[in-house]
Backbone:
């Protein structure tokens, strides 16, 4: 929910599921291709993760901001864009939606805090695997393993700061909408 950009909110639930699912499928399918060199494996991961992540993301988005379905695509995108940037929404009739979306972002961030320990554990395991692959693995395994470490470290280091800026912007936009 927090990672979903404004332009994706312009679409309906199925369009948001497809957009979020394709992004995850391509990302992880590429990892499989680099690591194993198997196009069949990459396609399987692409299909399975696209369906799973797309469905999961769309359901979560709908659960956290159910009022989004009452807006048309352009209005949803405008609300998301203004809230994420911390700006006042141009149309006063959308101010209540800014307040609702800001609350949805805070709920999503709170739910995500519980996974921090899991990410820390996965990062430690990925680092151990990357070291092992560096000593014994193929070039593809080495590249894929270290890319996983980089992604995990980014999630631990970069993402909390970015999330804090995003939530601060949502607070500014909400305060502006309440005025």
Residues:
């Amino acid at each position: 929910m927090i990672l979903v950009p404004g332009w994706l909110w312009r679409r309906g639930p199925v369009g948001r599921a497809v957009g979020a699912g394709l992004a995850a499928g391509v990302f992880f399918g590429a990892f499989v291709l680099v690591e194993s060199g198997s196009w069949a494996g990459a396609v399987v991961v692409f299909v399975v993760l696209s369906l799973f992540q797309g469905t999961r993301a769309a359901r979560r988005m709908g659960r956290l901001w159910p009022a989004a379905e009452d807006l048309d695509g352009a209005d949803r995108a405008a609300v998301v864009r203004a809230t994420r940037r911390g700006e006042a929404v141009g149309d006063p009739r959308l101010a209540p939606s800014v307040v609702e979306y800001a609350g949805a972002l805070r709920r999503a961030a709170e739910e995500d805090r519980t996974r921090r320990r899991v990410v820390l554990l996965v990062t430690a395991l990925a680092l151990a695997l990357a070291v092992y692959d560096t000593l014994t693995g193929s070039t593809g395994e080495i590249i894929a393993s270290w890319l996983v470490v980089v992604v995990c470290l980014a999630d631990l280091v970069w993402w909390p700061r970015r999330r804090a800026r995003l939530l601060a912007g949502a607070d500014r936009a909400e305060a502006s909408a309440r005025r």
